[in-house]
Amino acid sequence: DAKTTQPTSMDCAEGRAANLPCNHSTISGNEYVYWYRQIHSQGPQYIIHGLKNNETNEMASLIITEDRKSSTLILPHATLRDTAVYYCILNKGANNLFFGTGTRLTVIP
Amino acid sequence: DAGITQSPRHKVTETGTPVTLRCHQTENHRYMYWYRQDPGHGLRLIHYSYGVKDTDKGEVSDGYSVSRSKTEDFLLTLESATSSQTSVYFCAINREWDSEQFFGPGTRLTVL
Fold first, then answer.
1. Spatial separation of the C-alpha atoms in residues A9 and B105, rounded to whole Å
2. pLDDT level of residue B33 (50, 70, 90 thresholds)
């Protein structure tokens, strides 16, 4: 099963864009890229997902490379409340959602 | 909030005792999941359900059983709790396998 690789941690200044990378070089054609985040001890929260095209919603933008081997989650104007662990996940089935250890994003005032 | 509740929210029990955790949803979603999360780890899937009475194993199913007799409830049972099952347990739901999952608030279980 395809897995993802993310940096362990990142910092971002408040008000600036946070760009969180994810490598998924063994992704298969029917796997979606999902992003979730988990704010301290709460349940994970869905952010965005995509298959091939770039996606944008009220929370974030998702940029997927043309070969689909990597993606970037963009939080356009990070706030202190965006401090969380961000998980990049590949999904091709109900029992096939591997969270990994994610990226701990710290937004700095 | 996606209408998911978990009970109890906190539980301390002793090794060898049976424990049942409940996940309740008001969304009428087809899929329900149980995950566990341990320090330094992401979430790991224990069991999931794709309909009433339809369940399947996940990555870390040993020592756990589940039941789903109604759409809205998904029960996770530890038949004989062990200290290695001390963890935070999250329930999740989604409408279809490829739609976003919504998570409950979690249950913190301590097995002494």
1. 24
2. very high
